[in-house]
């Protein structure tokens, strides 16, 4: 934001922003103060277009609140001091807060009883960071710190701080935006990258355990995919510790029966997730999915990267050579 944006653009950005960090560009030299001054200049009622004074006043007031809240409250751990802002998302078991102006996220469980799941996530992210192939590091959030937080009521909760993924939306958001489903060619890059991320995790000794719409986020413009919410993750051969109740039907039989999870568990869930996202999947793709979702884990593919090769061959037969296909969320 090197120059003041238009009135309409500025109002739209301010209205959509969750934190002030959402209003700061990645351009070299861009600072929060500069962004604030440019936005004030753009939406000040004195320069608003005719008939837009009320919208200008509301936008300026919201901008002022976002600016005032940018630093948030101070949280000091054994390693660092953070400024915690507003809640930016609510997960299955935790709230996510903007940290340090939105550069990171604090994940704090609502109940101390879920501390074990929070510890599982911290352990999984640490293992992926240490044992996973660094070429695929972008497929999971980067862990910054895990610690125990004690509130005013002396309740102790395990919390984590991770690097924030900007510009991403969940596959649940995609489904809401496209209730009739998306084109299989758009789903192709999501599916491919999802299998890539899962194969990377499996080779590091981690089964995600909950490949669900809210736990897979995508960057529409850059075609990025990140697996989030590793609270349900386990080592291969270990039962998944908990289910997301509203998605019970999406789990394979071994999870609902409390039996050991394997790479085939994630493959089952990833396949169902992608198939449910596609509008009218072609018959060859539906047959491919059926082969990944047998009730018996031993009947399913066991290696996500090998399965990716099979998917690529199928997609090539259906649609020809791969080419970049722009994808966007509705405004």
TrEMBL record:
An example Gene Ontology molecular-function term: protein kinase activity
PROSITE patterns: PROTEIN_KINASE_DOM (PS50011)
Membrane-traversing stretches: none
Record-linked Gene3D superfamilies: Transferase(Phosphotransferase) domain 1
InterPro entries: Kinase-like_dom_sf (IPR011009), Prot_kinase_dom (IPR000719)
Taxonomic superkingdom: Bacteria
Start and end residues of each Protein kinase domain: 82-331
Annotated protein name in UniProt: Protein kinase domain-containing protein
Protein's organism: Actinoplanes digitatis
């Amino acid at each position: 934001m090197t120059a003041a944006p238009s009135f309409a653009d500025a109002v739209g950005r301010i209205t959509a922003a969750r934190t002030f960090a959402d209003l700061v560009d990645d351009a070299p030299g861009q600072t929060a103060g500069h962004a604030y001054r440019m936005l004030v200049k753009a939406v000040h009622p004195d320069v608003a277009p005719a008939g837009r004074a009320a919208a200008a006043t509301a936008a300026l007031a919201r901008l002022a609140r976002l600016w005032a809240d940018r630093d948030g409250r101070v949280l000091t751990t054994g390693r660092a001091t953070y400024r915690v802002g507003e809640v930016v998302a609510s997960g299955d078991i935790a709230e996510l807060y903007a940290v340090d102006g939105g550069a990171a996220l604090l994940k704090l469980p609502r109940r101390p009883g879920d501390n074990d799941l929070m510890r599982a996530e911290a352990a999984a992210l640490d293992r992926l960071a240490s044992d996973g192939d660094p070429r695929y590091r972008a497929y999971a959030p980067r862990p910054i710190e895990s610690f125990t937080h004690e509130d005013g009521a002396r309740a102790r909760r395990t919390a984590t701080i991770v690097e924030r993924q900007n510009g991403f939306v969940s596959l649940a958001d995609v489904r809401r935006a496209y209730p009739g489903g998306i084109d299989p060619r758009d789903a192709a890059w999501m599916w491919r990258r999802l299998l890539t991320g899962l194969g990377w995790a499996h080779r590091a000794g981690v089964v995600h355990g909950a490949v669900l719409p809210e736990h897979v986020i995508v960057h529409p413009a850059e075609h990025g995919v990140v697996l989030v919410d590793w609270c349900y993750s386990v080592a291969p051969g270990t039962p998944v510790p908990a289910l997301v109740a509203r998605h019970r039907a999406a789990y394979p039989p071994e999870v609902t029966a409390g039996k050991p999870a394997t790479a085939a568990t994630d493959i089952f869930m990833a396949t169902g997730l992608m198939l449910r996202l596609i509008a009218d999947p072609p018959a060859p793709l539906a047959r491919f999915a059926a082969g990944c979702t047998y009730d018996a884990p031993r009947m399913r593919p066991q290696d996500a990267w090998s399965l990716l090769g099979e998917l690529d061959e199928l997609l090539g037969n259906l649609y020809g050579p791969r080419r970049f296909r722009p994808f966007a969320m509705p405004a």
